[in-house]
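User: Structure tokens for this complex, please. No commentary.
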Amino acid sequence: MHAAPGGLLVAVSATFKRDLTLMLRRRGEVLNPLVFFALVITLFPIGISPDPELLASIAPGLLWVAALLAALLSLDSLFRGDYDDGSLEQLLLAPHPLAALGLAKVAVHWLLTGLPLALMAPVLGIMLALPAGSYAVLALSLAVGTASLSLIGAIGAALTVGLARGGVLLSLLVLPLYIPVLIFGAGAVQAAILGDGIAPHLAILGALFTVSLMLAPWAIAASLRISING
Amino acid sequence: MTGGKGPFRVEFDPKLMRLERPLSLCLQARKLACERDDRWLFEGLDLDIRSGEIVRIEGPNGSGKTTLLKILSGQLSDYSGELYWNDAPMRQVREHFLANLLYLGHAPGVKTGLSPLENLAWYQALSGDKGSETQREKALAAVGLTGFEDVPAGQLSAGQQRRVALARLTLTQRALWVLDEPFTAIDRDGVDALEKQLIAHAQAGGCVLVTTHHELTASSVLRRVQLG
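Assistant:
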């Protein structure tokens, strides 16, 4: 007694398309984390020192921390709108696995937050005198890393969606889980600068992403059900 | 919003069988009890909702009408008692139950950033069927929103937004309608049409579970359940 198998694909792609359309119509919300990222990185050379050697040594960490915070900043609104206007109830009552529908929403979040951050990072890296040769690794590590960040963060966003001011709690819940991604993400860029092997770092980032991809959708679905039970 | 509906089909795997004749449906609650803030909203509630019925849940504000609807539609798990769908425990047949359920909550679930057509397209796809633009335009015409198809829903009035949500009743063929205050913000003509639609749905073999402060016309298909 299952719905037609093609039905799930229709529902998931429609949810993906709907969220994408909604976000593209609210450009401000999409640009917000990118502007935050650019501002923070611009301020560091001014605040610390314009010395290229000093900046280059801290650049990987700075870029990664700023991107991580920018991604975190945008997470609170992931399920908030749906919760407020009642469409989250409808999502829960769809005759399809909530995990798959939630994953579609997370995919949109990454596409409009994580991916642009990853593409922007090399440009900001120039400002921090990031040594040549590490730009590709920076973008790649951020692209894979932010996908994990979106997945893990969505669990926190789902848990706190029913709370009036869940933003702080969301950060507290999610930040400890972000730390491994940060360590290996920044580590990959550092290794690229020093000329060490980057493969182990990227492999662990990939592994973290795979584990998140397997487990997070179920956790997101369970969290949403808890939130709706409020 | 005119009724003219065909017989209701219960969604089994279409490859296995296609039921053209209305099938008797039944949602049962046994010894349902729910506690909120150290207060029993209801206790020992037995409820049978069958095909061909409109069940109206009545009670003063805060008597737990919305909570009951949320429990019966499978959203809340914070209750004691048992739910049965077609004589099978809800846990086992949840997916089949959801495929037959149309729930319309207190919030209309209409995205203000999308046009009515886009809103309906998502709802239709959510049930696994892409549908067509003509179907959706027809459904919008049935709720009196011709000419507003491509206007962002945020620019529509509260009543019009509610009508977008109500267009789902015409658009998707579901047997069990669970409607929480569907008459909110609807004008008098709309109320009449919606009432007719509910009766037509029950007469065609569907069932309707509704809370409303609006007085429904007494009809042979109407049954009342008092809470609180």
